Amino acid sequence: MIEQLTFGGFYDQNHDVDILYTRNYGVTIQFDQKKQLDQIRYQMKTICAKKAENWMWEVTMDKTALYVNDKIPDSFKQRLDVNFGTTVLYPISVLVTPSGIIKGISDLSFSAITERFKTFKKKTLQENSGTSIEDYLLNLGKGIATKKKLIRYLTFDWFWALYFAPVYNDTAKKLVMPFQTNVPKISYMGDLIEKTELSYYNTRQLTFDGKVSNAYFKQYPSTKYYKAGIKLKYDFDSNNGRIANIVSDQSIIEKQNVIQRILVNIDYLPEKDAMESSVENNEEGTQKPTFKNKILKWWNA
Q1: DSSP per residue, 232-264
Q2: So what's the pLDDT on residue 276?
């Protein structure tokens, strides 16, 4: 019998004990649109905690090592975006249900983000002036003015959209995912399927093949010839039920031409966890990695 999955691992491991674990992920996002290929990659550290008497998880995340097209962004606007998107918004703690749905941001975390934004805004205005800078900061402030707005802002990040999705203990018929950067997230209709046997990599797999309904595009004359779909593959560690890998492939098609494709890879980096554990405990020696693959070697290079 296949064990029931829930956010944080197998249900039996999450039911009546205190749990605290850290996992590091490497995230790669490739944008192929308008005959231009761009790539963003970063690392996301997650600390997941749950008390035995509480069914809700608290997940703390920290986003680091952000690169655009394999280099640290160097334009003025990009530097501000990266600074805001890493040092202001993170670290952040959210409350998550066993099915993977975000229920809110902790009060302490929201207060810390608000204070960091004030510092970011003050420093930016001290170093720069002009209407464009003021408008830029004003729009950022509006986007994170409330907990609800902040969650909406962050779930446009593909890591958030894929990691916090109802795929753990639900037979979802639709998943709400990003579409285009200037368009709200929309529903992809499809079936969530769990394979009954372990994969070649000894993981449990869930797949989802979804499409956007034609009715959605008919609402907007400029997009009535569009078709859009997404293919997802989730790999869960067979020993503890936690995410080992996520692959997302989203495409938008217009008259048989692919006008946008976004490919996302989220890979667990066990060597990063081993390194941190060794430093924290002042242990000597080396620890063999759980597995090695091309993505892992690349991230740890």
Answers
A1: EEEEEETTT--EEEEEEEEEEEETTEEEEEEEE
A2: 58
